[in-house]
Amino acid sequence: MNGPTHQAKPRGSAIALCGAVVFAVVVLILVFALPGATSRKYPERTPVRFWHMWTAEWKAVVERIVDRFNESQVLYEVVPLSVPGTAADSKFLLSVAGGDPPDVMAQWNQVIPKWADSGLLIPLNDLMSPEEWKEIQRTTYPAALKIGMYKGNLYGVTTGLDIYACYCRLADLRDAGLDPNQFPETLEELVHWGELLHKFTPEGHLSRIGFLPSGFVTYAPAFGGGFYDWTRGTVLLNTPENLRAMTFLVDQRRKLGFENVIRFESGLTVGLGNVQWPFISGAYSITVDGQWRVEQIARFAPELEYATFPIPPPKGGRKDAGWVNGNFMIIPRGAKQVGGAWQFIKFWSGIENPKRAAEFYAWGGWLPMCPAIAEAPKYREFVEKNPQFKTFLDVLPSENIQPTPPVPYQVYLWDRITRADDAAQRGSLTPQAALERLEKEIDREIATRRQFGYEDETEVKSRT
Amino acid sequence: MRKHWAGYAFISPWLLGFIVFTAVPFLASIYLSFTRYDIVSAPVWVGSANYDRLLRGDPLFWKSLGITFKYAVVAVPVGIIAGVGLALLLNLDIAGISVYRTVFYIPSIVPVVATSVIFVWILNPQIGLVNGLLRRLGATGPAWLQDTRWAFWSLAFMSLWGVGGSMIIYLAGLKDVPAALYEAAIIDGAGAWQRTRHVTLPMMTPVIFFNLVMGVIGSFQYFTEAYIMTQGGPEDSTHFYALYLFNRAWRYLDMGYASAMAWILFVVVMVFTTLIFRTHHRWVHYGD
User: Fold this and answer.
1) Interchain contact A281–B (C-beta under 8 A)
2) Which residues of A touch B239 (CB under 8 A)?
């Protein structure tokens, strides 16, 4: 009697279990197979997947440009996706490794040499006719071109440059009896202004920095130095010019006291893109920063009376020199819509129509890639509204502004240069010792890369 | 076997996840540590070159290992002492004790990223809470995270913020100590200190042992706070091993080298864990 009942139970539970497993598998397949929730305005067109790292108000600008592109198209629809900046590089690498990269990506990290060297990026000059490529080389600002180049090929089209210049608070100058209409012409003179503007507490601690030159990468080119010989393709580190630059910077810091400056600077609230910039709060009378601060001042401190002027060279040094970085567009290998991606890059950057693109640069407050955009009516209008922006625009054509050397170990090189600068600025190492250590570290890295069979290591550093 | 298949079917999501996301990468990293690999190109076999380079040609490897070791030596004992001390205090029979327990436990459940960002502010030398309190006492606090002499110690002592997690385990251990032992000790004339020293602490040693092992393993993997708060600076003074490994892997795309670093870390952790296990019979009492 009991026999059939005993057998029916396991069979029933087995059927239920099988049903549950089948259900789980179907749900899993549906989850992965169904398209994502991205809304498409033009579903009939070919999608071009575009990754970028902008957020907040910048994201809105990017989406506005994308909308403009999509309105101008009949074939493609660019679908933008904002990827968090901190994870963007690793997400991109994994997407390429997984065979499903975006079609185009906007970047500003120092990635071109390494990624191009690993065969991750498509040379964009291959997408142009020889005449077109020649024309771009002829008309683009030298710095904008250098940012995107690696070993003779263009891997990134610059859509905005970051240039550095001096910002000064005019009221502070007047209080110190300095002429706000006549800015210093040498770095030494500017340092002297800074000394007149410093303020201290009764205990001798800094309460305001008048001006303190800081940042080895920013100042080395002005001293005739820099980190790369662009004609010979060699990395330059421990050179007399770089030593002179670092020594000058360290000397200024020593005068104020290493400890005193560290304490003052570490107490500042430094925020990119917000009201916490110490210049706005008055912690610095004169400081060096990028062009994006012009818009931030207009937004967060419109009443602030200030002016911008180029970083003056040291006596006998190079004019309009410094470090430059920028935003650029890349197309990964494995992109499914290379044609659409290239159309979009040409549209945004202004390669196709500089006058139209001038408006995009104005929306974002970006420095253009070529003079044709800078001279377009929409961009002129923007500069007239933001006259302090002109300082940065004037520096743009300079051959003396240089990006980080385009070597495959660029990020490592950058990290070690900043560490050497840090050690010297804190007084832990003499400038000479810091540069010697830096050269040793890079020497070791290059030797290791050679040992590991990287065939492209031709850079040799020039020595003191 | 047939009667177990339903069980396996139910745990198959976890099993699959474990095999795909843990076991396979774990085993693959052994192979990758003998290659030159940048994620996107095929790995190129280089033999033991990554290990040679690590052990002989990379001062930052030794420096980061030293910093991490120093952290383990400082943070683990300090964490144990603070955890046991707090647990003893919170085991007292006083009014509102559950409120105190909650207050001390809550910080340990705050995400470490949020904690790190908050501590950047707390340790700000001008407007931070710590230096503000010191100023009230007439002292001038240092630039905690920007001074090479203080950055490491700031992170090491910040680890106490999460001591509530181990404190709860110690508290559970305290509740497990048989009351008869205390009664016997009192009959024998033992005072409060003697009871703590000769009854409580020996009976707590299994829990301390557990926290010691977990603490050592966790310390050698210390990463998030350094990544967020100091990025290894100033002057590499907080360049912890896991941070250097991460930079090698994701900043420099040197995955082969990073895999070799991961395996050396694995060996180091195994050695220390084995050493602790070897000694435990001398000092851990299981009450038998």
Assistant:
1) no
2) none
